[in-house]
Amino acid sequence: MSKSSTSKTLVWILMAMLIFGLGGFGITNLGGSATSVGSVGDKEIDINEYARALQNELRAVEAQTGQSLSFADARAMGLDQIVLGNLVTTRALDAENDRLGISLGDARLAQELRAISAFKSPDGQFDREAYKFALEQIGMSEAEFETSMREESARALLQTAIVSGLSMPVSYGEVILNFVGEERDVTIARLDAEALAYPVATPSDDQLLAYYEANIDAFTRPAMREITYAWLSPSMLIDTVEIDEETLRALYEERSAEFNTPERRLVERLAFADMDAAEAARAKLDAGESSFEDLVAARGLELSDTDLGDVSTADLGAAGEAVFSAEVGSVAGPIQTIIGPALFRVNGVLPGNEVPFDEALPELREELAAERARRVIDSEMSAIDDLLAAGATLEELAKESDMQVDQISWHDGLGDGIAGYEEFRALAATLSAEDFPQIETLEDGGIFALRLDGETPAAPAPFDDVRDEVAAAWTRDETVRRLEEMAANLTPMLGGDADLSVYGLAPRTETGILRNGFVPDTPATFLETVFSLEDGAVATLPHDDTVLILRLDAVRQPDKENEEITSLANTLLRQAAEGIAQDVFQAYATEIQAQKGVTLDQPAINAVHAQFQ
Asked: How many CA atoms lie within 13 A of 6 on its CB side?
């Protein structure tokens, strides 16, 4: 929900200027006879506005992921529908504001315009020529831009009116807090095969065969695809690539900051208005009348406000020498800095690290060799493509190029070797016998081509082939069955405060367990079981080839006096209120759309999408 009409408008201006400066994917040529991609009531959704919003969303996703995003992938993610939905909601609110008569007044509009830095002259005053020029760059008239600002401000008012005042009762927060923050103490004892009075006997052939047939799914081999592949990866060529020492030394110097890091300090800085105040604080510190924490609190600050993190001498400027000569735990200063006189507390030392060229050489050589190997592969791709186009088989590729040929019985879930690449798995899953081998690329710069030789449907493995697996599974299940019987006989005697060691068990106690916690060496259902028990109750859980005996020893509610617990409760209340506010707003916007009516011009939408292909 908008908090500032000015900031959003300015972002749109700057993004639009960038888009138009780069050609904007043809956005300026979207016109034709279409000016909108749809409408809500009598409020049209401008075709260029949709294009700009879609462009911005694409760039935002790319910035978050650090990867280029094709428009096809964006549509598969539903990005176009999200953008269009947001614009529909925006125009629905504009239509409602017209009905309610909500608008931004001229005086307020002028104030908003004067506040936008893009429209100011070097002396900080509003510049009409700068205003006019900026709007020309994004293809908007003054009237259009000012209308958009009025509408945006009115939408912010309407949104605030809809959701303001929504809050959750304190009791809601307490219920959630009690659920999330409840702690439990549990005693755990493990029974394994050594606890059995008699070991599990060796199964007979009839027992194994019966187990095999009863659990046939566990011994069914997945459907296999017999695939021949030709593959060339950078790692295959690294040993053949030569790198001269001069190039390696140049790379070492370029990455010097990575291999040679200076000594650093963990430092807190407390600044004062003048040197007299700083020296007075230092005197209290030296006299033992105040601690550094007291001085921070006296300034109305938290320790986190003074934390500089880990810094080098250069980071501290004039204070560097004094701070780096101080002992850990001591306070240096007062020292004059660019923000005034300050005291510095040293909390730790992070030693520097120097990696000489000879030690960095293997890493540098591998990096450069891999990069050059990728370039070699790139240069060979065209020739390899030509060989395939001329009818060469994958085996012939191996003779005519550096590619290696091998075969794999691939199935879903296999991830070894070349099957570890997502690109290979995706193609292997859809490959047909009619598909002609083509060169595809891998994420590490390698290339590959596939041929489907045949398919083997899923089928049970022959009993003789999996006899050892069946025997191991039977023995495990039989062991657990007998251990569960033993545990069932023991549990009536283990409740309350009974001493489990009396019964030959080796108990351990886990305290302060939370619902979202983790207890090592326990099954996935452990926490669910623990939080379903009554105080003093006992339960059993199979785990691999053992059985756990669990006893709930204590249940503790969250400490309401604990600041962390209080903060958590407030966070839960705020999140719940925000969620309800969002739901209320969405319901309101949906109702407006239903009342006003939404129409979309699919040909115009397609015209926008065509510019992004």
From this structure: 12
